[in-house]
Amino acid sequence: MTPNLPQSVSGVGIDLLDIDRMKLAYQRHGEAFFQRVFTKQEIEFCSSKLNPFPSYAVRFAAKEAVFKALSQVGIRIVRWQDIEVTQSTDGVPALSVIGAEDYSYHLSMSHTTTLATAIVVIERNR
After folding, report:
1. Which of 64, 66, 59, 56 is nearest to 106 (CA)?
2. Which segment of 21-25, 95-99, 122-126 scores lowest on mean pLDDT?
3. Burial code of 30-41, b = ≥16 C-beta within 10 A, e = fewer?
4. Using CA atoms, how far apart are residues 87 and 119, in angstroms rounded to an integer?
5. Which of 10, 37, 14 lies closest to 120, judged by CA?
6. Chain-centroid distance, C-alpha 14
7. Strands of 6-18's sheet, edge to edge?
8. Which long-range contacts (CB under 8 A, 24 or more apart) does 43-47 make?
9. What is the average pLDDT value for the chain, to the nearest integer?
10. I want to staple 15 with a disulfide (CB 3.0 to 4.6 A). Which of 26, 56, 64, 121 is the partner?
11. Is the four-CA dihedral 31, 92, 2, 66 of positive or negative sign?
12. pTM across the whole model
């Protein structure tokens, strides 16, 4: 059996977000905004933080970066919740993407007190 190995880079996406925009979205739309954009697991993780907004913002940036990377291969994900940012037991971020399982995802994300950023590289699996 041949291992399911990546073939080559198919797309790259990057996003930068002012964390205050996430706060503003919450002030305008409340929990409904988070429930529309984030999965239950993402909400539980972010809500467990003393200041949840950087965690929400960096995950939002990751989802935007996925949209951008997948658009380069003609895939349009419709629902925000089809993209989920997860973490391995050692804290490494990972992605789960419904509707684009033929790709491997590489995610890097970071935030300061004011900005959140994420970059996603996708590779088509053999």
Report:
1. 66
2. 122-126
3. eeebbeebbbee
4. 16
5. 14
6. 10
7. 6-18, 115-125, 103-111
8. 45/87
9. 92
10. 64
11. positive
12. 0.90
Q: Is the pLDDT of residue 78 over 90?
A: no
Beta strand 93-97 pairing with 115-125: unpaired
Of 69, 42, 79, which Cα lies nearest the Cα of 58?
Answer: 42
Question: To which CATH superfamily is domain 6-125 assigned?
Answer: 4'-phosphopantetheinyl transferase domain (3.90.470.20)
At residue 1, does pLDDT exceed 60? no
Cα–Cα distance for residue pair 126/14, rounded to 1 Å:
24
Q: Give the start-end residues of each E strand in the chain.
A: 6-18, 83-87, 93-97, 103-111, 115-125
3-state SS assignment for residue 108: strand
